[in-house]
Design goal:
By secondary structure, the protein is mainly α. Helices cover 57% and strands 5% of the residues. The chain has 8 helices and 3 strands. A 3-stranded antiparallel β-sheet has the order 1-3-2. A hairpin with a 5-residue loop joins strand 2 and strand 3. It is extended.
């Protein structure tokens, strides 16, 4: 029997209906996961110094449990600890950038990274020419809608995509150079 075959006795011929009452709510699924994963999900979204009790409440766990995991996350470099009363934690963007660069190095050959960086830099140059600016932060959304004859949504999407290309170029270049530099601009690549 093929693994995709359904045994003859698996279906009795009666129509079954989906009972929505039997399904777990998304909140229940999030609360019932392992505490470490719930805390990690919360930490990934913490971009400003946040009290341990707030993080614990968001992860639906005890404050002492959260404190123990946050200390471990701090030792791993995943969060920054801000001493004081109360102690606060925030996500360490450099750690997550390093992890992404490491993933790129593991998944792609050096030539694939260079090719992707070359394509990304071409996209960036197209946006620079379109908006006559060197970075999306220099472009006014109001001016872009008028000068480019775009809807506000279309201009915002274009600028957001441009920003994504800028971030991708930084990551790819760091992966290519084998040394991540936070906030650095990519150097030209001889592809």
């Amino acid at each position: 029997m093929d693994t995709t075959d359904i045994p003859d006795d698996a279906y009795n011929g009666e129509e079954s209906t989906l009972n929505l009452e039997e399904l777990e709510s998304p909140d229940t699924l999030l609360r019932d996961g392992p505490i470490r994963e719930r805390l990690l999900d919360v930490v990934v979204g913490v971009r400003t110094p946040t009290k341990v009790s707030t993080i614990a409440r968001r992860a639906d766990c005890g404050t002492e449990t959260a404190r123990d995991y946050l200390e471990w996350f701090d030792e791993m470099g995943m969060v920054h600890r801000h001493n004081g009363r109360p102690v606060r934690y925030e996500r360490n963007d450099a750690y997550f950038q390093w992890r992404r660069i490491d993933q790129i190095r593991e998944e792609y050959s050096e030539q694939e990274i260079v090719d992707a960086l070359d394509d990304t830099l071409k996209q960036i140059e197209d946006y620079r020419a379109q908006f006559d600016a060197t970075h999306p932060d220099e472009v006014s959304l109001v001016d872009a809608t008028q000068e480019q004859n775009l809807s506000t949504e279309a201009a915002w999407e274009a600028l957001s995509e441009w920003e994504s290309f800028e971030q991708r170029a930084t990551l790819l270049d760091a992966a290519r150079r084998n040394n991540p530099v936070a906030g650095s601009k990519p150097d030209p690549v001889d592809a």
